[in-house]
Amino acid sequence: MSDPHTPADRLRFKPYPGPAAGWGALRAVTDHWFESKQPFKNLFAMVKTNKSNGFDCPGCAWGEAPQGGMIKFCENGAKAVNWEATSRRVDAAFFEKHSVSDLLKQDDYWLEFQGRLTEPMVYNRATDHYEPIRWDDAFALIARHLNGLDNPHQAAFYTSGRASNEAAFLYQLFVRAFGTNNFPDCSNMCHEASGVALAESIGTGKGTVTFEDFDKADALFLFGQNPGTNHPRMLEPIRDAVKRGAQVAVFNPLRERGLERFQAPQDPKEMLTGGSSPLNTAYFRPALGGDMAAVRGMVKWLLQWDREATESSGAPVFDHAFIAEHTTGLDDYLAEVDATSWERIEAQSGLSRGVIEQAARIHRDSKRVIICWAMGITQHKHSVPTIQEIANLQLLRGQFGEGAGLCPVRGHSNVQGDRTVGIADEPPAALLDALEKRFGFQPPREPGYNVITTLQAMVARKLKVFLALGGNFAQATPDTPRTHEALRSCDLTVQISTKLNRSHLVGGTEALILPCLGRTDIDRQAGGAQGVTVEDSFSMVHISHGQLKPLSEQMRSEPAILAGIAEATLGKTPVDWSALVEDYDRIRDLIQDTIAGFENFNERLKHPGGFYLGNPARDHQWHTDSGRAFLAANSLPDTLVDDGILARGDTPDLVLQTLRSHDQYNTTIYGLHDRYRGVHNGRKVVFANAADIQRLGFKAGDKIDLVSLWRDGVERRVSDFTLLEYDVPAGQAAAYYPETNPLVPMDSYGDGSFTPTSKLIAIRLEASRAPARIA
Ligand SMILES: Nc1nc2c(c(=O)[nH]1)N[C@H]1C(S)=C(S)[C@@H](COP(=O)(O)OP(=O)(O)OC[C@H]3O[C@@H](n4cnc5c(=O)[nH]c(N)nc54)[C@H](O)[C@@H]3O)O[C@H]1N2
Ligand SMILES: Nc1nc2c(c(=O)[nH]1)N[C@H]1C(S)=C(S)[C@@H](COP(=O)(O)OP(=O)(O)OC[C@H]3O[C@@H](n4cnc5c(=O)[nH]c(N)nc54)[C@H](O)[C@@H]3O)O[C@H]1N2
Ligand SMILES: [Mo]
């Protein structure tokens, strides 16, 4: 990893010959260790990652093998830990040296690289510098703004998915006692569609499988995810599945190395002999947004075979007993399947009927099937119907229970837990009832703002205060220039953060930075060192204890900061906030009193590995209105490119997906390499295929601008990107997020999910207007 102070080397693009993980990963881990400037301290901490007496990895939300090996972290977990546990500091002296205007000229990589935020700061508009502020004065400033609003809905409260259950619970209690459900969160940009779709289809928004189920499945289907980079600990169960003869069918337009071959760093033989193991048995490459059509095609084949079996008295393909006992909507759904033509399916999925038949056979011939998915499925306009189609496939074949089910692979390490403990702009009535009963105040019942409606409210100048518990709202959200302008229009913005990022630089008239402890830091309160809890993708709740001494005494824990804000704003109602923070067991007692599944919370945490919250659908309990699972009969979308664009007469050159490189964690850029895709020393690149590049009159290596097409006719452009020839299906392109977020219009979002359509943006390519950069 290079120091961002030195001018970057020239962009290099060379295919990576190796398997995923292996020596490349070990080398990268070592680099990041030394980069942190405290390698030995962090090594000690790393050994404790994901152990029952250590801390939960702040990387992704993948779960733990209950038996577990000695080393329980991966390359990207190591990067996440070393990035947080650095000895570099962004303190008063740093802000005295750099004005906000100067900092705005730096890129996202440089900003976070500067180190940990170590003291509370307030923006001084007159000098354009952040200056130190006492904690109590910061809390008083926030309280003054909040209590001065015409109504509580003029404030919005963002959450990023690293916040612990304890912090998130206090936060939602405070915000609801204050009077609003304005809870935009990172989930709105991530797996929201999974929650919305599954709640209607199977009565729970969460995945139905456990870690152990992966060992029992006969087939895994992996849709729209890149585990080699984003969930590296998932590679082992995938490799093991292939090894024991299970089928692993991948749906991804790109040939991702982390879905092809794996060299296990924990396997000395593989490491020393240069061996590696395959990660799939079949690879399907659909059109962007074509998965719903592909799954519809699979169902069409299975339906045909099931009918043939009935006629010939052969073995049925569908689980008719399961369907009869547990589902509704069968006739309407099958009518919809029959009405969908193969021409339509082939055109939209980008896969031929014969290729889809192979995928359908894998499903048919496997007794137990798990289907996993991530952002390639959830960030489309029609993500909710796509996920319901996946659920339908599993319902028709009775795939709920041991070794079978649905697995939305979550992103942030506690994004699922945050929702469980109440971070929701449309909270369930049961939660509000429980809060009312336990705390004796009337929580607001009207839905609040999500990410998109927060942005729209800011643009309409209806929002005055914006507070963020973590994350980087300015860069993670779509339509960057408009979003920045919207944030600047607020009276007050508050960022509770570990690291400096652009959200601190595009603040409101008044702006605060409140530095907090991270997962790796020891959190000492009056009652001693505290642990916090998180929930993984498999609904396992466990405790996490920080291991490293915080860089500064001025940093506070997230619960302590939230308690300070709450007490300054509301006084000691409805709870004694500061008393709760003395001992987090007290916060967990309140979670136990109000959130289902947390009985004996503190007691059950003592069990190594934590406890399972359970999943009703796994047990064939359907918490839907009808009490049964629902086979939703959605039609395929008319067009994948928004018809408003086509109505304007615009025709796109390509459709673009925005994705993660290997060296980033969302808006946090760890380095300028995307090892498995062979890109080094740069991020402003676009992947497109040779025929498309030629058709559009360019050549590989050209400098280009990307312009997105949208019905409002506003120009959205990013400049000075390098065109790379890559194995991408025809008509598609891919480029990194967040650099391409200016291209995503804030009004382009998923139906029912409000998730920005980050995986399908209609674009045109233009020769770059930007002057060539002089090396
Ligand atoms: N190291 C690291 N780990 C992370 C993160 C990180 O940034 N870095 N982010 C975390 C978070 S918050 C999340 S949500 C997850 C994200 O994890 P992923 O969902 O794996 O992240 P993306 O990079 O967005 O990858 C999307 C994948 O879907 C494919 N894809 C895109 N469009 C389509 C489509 O229409 N159909 C199909 N079938 N495939 C498609 C892309 O080719 C790509 O392989 O990772 C989490 N873990
Ligand atoms: N175009 C496009 N846009 C996307 C996506 C995409 O695929 N394409 N993906 C979307 C997805 S899936 C997601 S989840 C969002 C991510 O959106 P966010 O969660 O808002 O963004 P992050 O980049 O994860 O936030 C990084 C910042 O979090 C702060 N931080 C880190 N750890 C902690 C902590 O322990 N506590 C606190 N308080 N702060 C901490 C640091 O200051 C750091 O700068 O982006 C979304 N945006
Ligand atoms: Mo995410």
From TrEMBL:
Q: Name one GO molecular function term.
A: 4 iron, 4 sulfur cluster binding
Per its UniProt record, what Pfam families does this chain match? Molybdopterin (PF00384)
Q: Which UniProt keywords apply?
A: 4Fe-4S, Iron, Iron-sulfur, Metal-binding, Molybdenum, Oxidoreductase
Asked whether the keyword Methyltransferase is assigned, the reply is no
GO annotations of cellular component type: membrane
InterPro entries cross-referenced by the UniProt entry? Asp_de-COase-like_dom_sf (IPR009010), MopB_CT_YdeP (IPR037951), Mopterin_OxRdtase (IPR006656), Mopterin_OxRdtse_a_bac (IPR010046), Prok_molybdopt-oxidoreductase (IPR050123), YdeP_MopB (IPR041953)
Q: Where is the Molybdopterin oxidoreductase domain?
A: 116-496
Please verify whether the record's keywords include Magnesium: no
Which cofactors must be present for this protein to function? Mo-bis(molybdopterin guanine dinucleotide); [4Fe-4S] cluster
Concerning its family, UniProt says: Belongs to the prokaryotic molybdopterin-containing oxidoreductase family.
**Which PANTHER family does the entry mention?**
PROTEIN YDEP (PTHR43105:SF4), RESPIRATORY NITRATE REDUCTASE (PTHR43105)
Q: Give the protein name, as stated in the record.
A: FdhF/YdeP family oxidoreductase
